[in-house]
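Throughout our pipeline, every protein is held as a single compact record rather than as scattered files. Nothing more is needed to write down the fold, since each code stands for a local backbone conformation. For reference, a complete record is included directly beneath this paragraph.
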Amino acid sequence: MLREEQRNKAFLVGAIMQVNDFHPGDLFGQIQSLVDQLDTERKARAAAEMTGAACSSLLTIVGKELLPPMASLATMADRILSGPLSAAQRREAEVLAQSTQRFLGALSEVQDFSTLESGEAELAVERFDLHVMVKEAASVLQERAGAKGLMSGVDMADNCPRFIVGDAARVRQVLMGLIEMALHSTNTGSIRLYASINEASYPITMRFDVTDTGEGFSAAEQAALFQPSADASRVGGGLGLPIARRLAEAMGGGLGCESAAGQGSLYWFTFQTVVADDMPQAQMAGHEAPVEILEAANDDVPADLNPKPEPKHKSGALSGHVLVVESNVVNRLLIGAYLEEFGLTHDVAETGTAALMYLSARTYDLVLMDTALPDYDGLQMAQRIRALQASASDVAVVALTAVSEKDNGQALVEAGVNARVAKPIQGRGLYAALVPFLPAQDEAVVAKAS
């Protein structure tokens, strides 16, 4: 506001100095005309800002309304694919599953973009394992590049720390976006990922470089990469890279592309962070897999890159009684069907209040709860469960989180959530989340979850 007032005053002074005849009437008329012009421009800017805010708000609302039913459709498609189908039925079900996943991805991008444009984006501040994140990216790159007959390589600078602080989910999102772009634009040759760190300043700067031997981009095409577009041509299109750049800037860094037609491309991403290697050793449990360089065109068995807590059994039907806390009737039906396949019994509560009553009266082995209930959010619900008396407060809690929700994983963990499952719910993901907390049945094998 101050800057605008100064600009307006300078504009008026400059205009007055150009008036040759200082007749009071003429001077007043000139000033009044300029004031009217400035007022008109101010109102136009305000109207444009209001329109932009309204569009952003509308996109957010529409996304929240569309995501739940689309997530249910995606879960239903997964359920259909797990059953016996003819060849034609399987093709149709696969098209349904792929289409719903693409729609969910587009909705998520629209919501991300509108949130970033409105300045309402919130970044998590959490300690995470950089080495594990790079290994996860390496696994995806190796598998996807191998499927296209490409070589792949991943490496890290020797001075890269093990643990750093930042928004792990957002860093992963941007990094995977760059890998996706390289895969999209490369048909022969190789793709390499390199992680490095600049310790010359504080906070330190983390950098990822993704290089490919693809067709490359002209200067005009490079500029178009970071513009929102509906054109999903070889220059990218969509909202992925514009969102990635805004996220990188929000994290104190940047994102860009260096390329020339016919000479491949270098995509880079930087963000500010601090080293967290000096935190207590007890917090490092379960993250001891070292980073390795991957050089392969085809490898059918990627390594186990993110070791989980040792499950109570390796495979087979589960045993236990589960409380499902979910307000959406379709999700309740789908979750119930999965739990029955896994060999589990369950009760259903539609609200957090009802769930707390169940927990006070009965014994459960696990609570599977939505984090957007009508009466409580995930944090509130976890806190209330842990505040219950006796054994009810020790029950394992697995949270169901939607794409549209802000990532608050660390806060959920601190509130008492043991694990999370992202919606849309799929059999393999749900089964993997339950395995560490439930005993096995000896006589059954769950094949449909795989």
Summary: Confidence is low (pLDDT under 50) at residues 15-22, 279-314, 443-448. The chain is about 45% helix and 15% strand. The chain has three domains: 2-118, 126-284, 321-437. The domain at 321-437 is CATH 3.40.50.2300 (Rossmann fold).
